[in-house]
Amino acid sequence: MTTFSQLMGTQTLLPIIQADTVEQGLDIAKAMADSGLKVVEVVLRSDASLEALRAIKQQHPDLLVGAGTVLDTQMLQQALDAGADFIVTPAITDALLKAVKACEVPGLPGVSTPADIALARENGFHEMKLFPASLAGGIPFLKAVSSVFRDVVFCPTGGINANNRCDYLALPNVIGVGGTWVAQKEWVEAGEWHKITDACKAVL
Ligand code: 3PG
Fold first, then answer.
1. Cβ(176)–Cβ(203) below 8 Å
2. 178 lines ligand 1 (CB under 6 A)
3. Residues of 144-153 as b/e, b for ≥16 C-beta within 10 angstroms?
């Protein structure tokens, strides 16, 4: 089975699409795809998110579109039904870990403590999202756990931006970073799609 890092390939940013409407999701996805990025995450945080994910996949067959903010097994099933290419969770439960592990698409479980890492690892995961990265200890935390969990790598998300992303990416146990800074709410509200494309281009 493909792992999350294999799916990302050389891409080191996982850009997050927060869409209040399907049209908004499509516009954001187009702006991101125009930059050359190949993998995006639609967070399931609005009534339109699942439909937006479906529509993005239809309009951009070349994009790999993951579902984020998957909180439980019901949301997981909805994300899979919508065609999610991978699954990202902000946190873990034993049931969610087992269900994500059983999926045919890669999963990136969200952890924030050494106990979370141990539980996710026990369920067969070696690639995890650190969330919320800046509040969960950020770079010092990632350095501290690197010698303990030597077979685990992370995609930190939450508080990552254009200024600190390279510091995270310089760590050997970081495979990529996720964030919303490349699709800021005010740009979306103003329809300034080129700003999203430019911000995404800046990380390539
Ligand atoms: C996530 O879902 O991973 C976070 O909401 C992203 O956090 P950010 O807005 O600080 O990038």
1. no
2. yes
3. ebbeebeebb
Is 23 annotated as catalytic?
A: no
Question: Of all residues in the chain, what percent are helix, strand and coil, respectively (each to 5)?
Answer: 45, 15, 40
- Give me the residue spans of the domains in the chain: 12-201
- Tell me if 99 CB under 6 Å of ligand 1: no
Rg over alpha carbons for the chain, rounded to the nearest Å, is 16
**Entry pTM:** 0.97
Give the residue among 175, 133, 180 at the shortest CA–CA distance from 155.
Answer: 175
pLDDT at residue 134 greater than cutoff 90: yes
Which ipTM did the prediction report?
0.90
Closest Cα to atom 4, ligand 1: which residue? 158
Token pair in block for residue 37: 């990025």
**Can you tell me which atom of ligand 1 is nearest the CA of 180?**
11
Task: Give strand pairing partners of 66.
Answer: 41
Q: Judge whether 23 and 48 are in contact, CB under 8 Å.
A: no
Q: Which of 23, 30, 41, 127 is catalytic?
A: 41
179 close to ligand 1 (CB < 6 Angstrom):
yes
CATH fold label, 12-201: TIM Barrel (3.20.20)
